[in-house]
Amino acid sequence: MNNPHKLHNKCLVTGATGFLGTNLVHELVKQGWDVRASGMHGSEVKYIKDLPVELVFADITLADEVDKIVEGCDVVFHVAGDTSFWKKHFNRQRKINVEGTTNVAEACLKHGVKRLIYTSTLDVLGFNPSGGSYDEQTGRYNFNNMGYNYGDTKLEAEVRLRSYQTEALEIVFIYPGFMIGPYDYTLQIGRIFFDLAAGSLPGLLPGGGSYCHVSEVAKAHVAAAEKGRAGEGYLCAGMPYSNITHADMFCRMAKEICATPPKFKIPRRVFIAYGYFCEMLSSVTNKPPEMNPGQARYMSSPQYAISGKAIRELGYKVPTVETCIHDAVTWYRQNGYEI
Question: How far is the C-alpha of 122 from the C-alpha of 303, rounded, in Å?
């Protein structure tokens, strides 16, 4: 596709009120796009409401609501997704992640959208059991049968979405890693800062991740709309210097806020057992669990992805983890969070 940013710059961002979505809306505005920003009914708009965007609300599981927000757009950035690991909400999660994505694709075809940029996750490329790294070609989903519903639903959504790839609708897939940076008001990775500051983190987690800066992931989405190859997927995660254990990452986060990290790493089996305990407790209290067994198995895996393809084709950048951490903490402090 020849530079849709210059020729067709009316775009929709679903999930515009979330962590990545908020960063993407800011980046699109900065680059001069005409933005329609969509969030779920009742979602927080504090961090985008003063931008020159059209704010709309929709439940993406309802086809008629999706139809209305897609109409008139040339490019759609489908960022919306449910990352919950509360078993009680697994059915809802599947409706949002799978059926919602199908609704977006159907609406794109109906209204002649030129290009759809879909925010997937590095999870659909699994992990390397040996602890080595992987890329778009060598990664394979292997979180199945773990109780990791988020990964299962994102994989199903991508399989479905690929059937909509045509000359009329070009689809590009983005696989973000463990994002960190500004506008994490929903406390995705950010909750770790506050747990460290309060001294409430019981131990360091097993496993490892491919950490990346959310602002750079947002820029890669825009670049994907402009020059990403149709039908291709791009890992926007880390590189060798940002592929580190969660224990190492949490210690670096603690250093940034002058906190003392836990002194020991929780064994994988203990962490999974803790997930079962939290899930059982949640069934009694009817409150979201701190962890569940599927999420614990997932977090215990070594996810060390390589983003060379996105670097070459999209101009994606991978700052150091220290830069990612510093920018996140700076944003919290500038926005009144005590950390």
Answer: 8
Q: Are 237 and 304 in contact (CB under 8 A)?
A: no
- HSE, side-chain direction, 13 A CA sphere, residue 338: 1
Q: Are strands 133-134 and 304-305 parallel, antiparallel or unpaired?
A: parallel
Q: Nearest CA to 297 among 132, 143, 120? A: 143
- Summarize the confidence of residues 32-55 as an average pLDDT: 96
**Quick one: tokens of 4?**
């849709």
Region 11-39: mean pLDDT is 97
What integer pLDDT is reported at residue 320 of this predicted model?
95
Residues 6+ apart with CB under 8 A from 255: none
pLDDT of res. 240:
85
Global pTM reads 0.95
Domain at 4-186+211-238+305-320: CATH code: 3.40.50.720
Token pair 């950010």: residue: 190
Handedness of CA 295, 333, 175, 74 (dihedral sign): positive
The distance from CA 42 to its chain's CA centroid, rounded to whole angstroms, is 21
Contact in structure between 39 and 12 (CB atoms under 8 Å): no
Reported as a single tens digit per residue, the pLDDT across 185-231 is 999 889 999 999 999 998 999 999 999 999 999 999 999 999 999 99
Take residue 148 and report the two structure tokens written for it. Answer: 């990791």
pLDDT of residue 8: 47
Please state the domain extents for the chain: 4-186+211-238+305-320
Q: Indicate if the pLDDT at residue 261 is higher than 90.
A: yes
CB-based contact 23:56 (threshold 8 Å): no
- Angle (CA) 237-239-245 rounded to 5° is 85
Opening angle at CA 193, ends 190 and 197, nearest 5: 155
Contacts of 233 (CB under 8 A, 6+ apart): 120, 136, 172, 173, 174, 175
Residue type, 42: G
Residue 156 tokens read as 């199903």
Sign of CA dihedral 113, 171, 313, 120: positive
SS3 332: helix
Tokens of 2: 């020849």
Residue type, 313: E
